Amino acid sequence: MEVLKWVVETYGKRLAMTVSFGGPEGMVLLDMLSRFTDRVTVLPRHGVLFKETVEFREEVMRWYRLPLDVLRQALSVEEQVERYGERMRTCSPDVCCQVRKIPP
User: Fold this and answer.
1) pTM for the full predicted model
2) Residue 45 to residues 7, 27, 71, 103: CA-CA distances in angstroms?
3) What residues form DSSP beta bridges with 46?
4) Can you tell me the mean pLDDT for 8-27?
5) pLDDT tens digits for 59-94?
6) Domain membership of residue 19 as a residue range
7) Are 18 and 45 in contact (CB under 8 A)?
8) Residue 80 sits in the same domain as residue 63
9) How is the chain classified by DSSP, letter by letter?
């Protein structure tokens, strides 16, 4: 907790964190940070999400009342399919993750 307090004091309004909205680690950090500040901007790490993940993300953000900045990957899903093929996700999972996740 001391480290998180230091982070909030040091970075203040510039503080942001990425969350996958699927892993417990991100949810725990989000909960812990929300106890010290309401100004941390939450950045989803993945640009293409399942409907259920989007619904969960919206519920979490209502609960914590933190700013959410939804970033988009460089290529739309349609552009990804055009460039890498319809079966990119099943044939090249590493390429799929590189294309669909938002780089830091």
Assistant:
1) 0.66
2) 20, 13, 8, 8
3) 101
4) 85
5) 988 898 888 777 777 777 788 788 877 777 666 667
6) 2-71
7) yes
8) no
9) -HHHHHHHHHHGGG-EEEE-SSSHHHHHHHHHHHTT-S-PEEEESBSS--HHHHHHHHHHHHHHT--B-----SS-HHHHHHHH-TTHHHH-HHHHHHHHBPP-
Token pair listed for 29 = 């950090």
- Mean pLDDT for 48-52 is 78
Residues 46 and 59 in one domain: yes
Whether 15 and 56 map to the same domain: the answer is: yes
Residue 6 confidence (pLDDT): 93
d(CA 21, CA 39): 19
64 in the same domain as 90: no
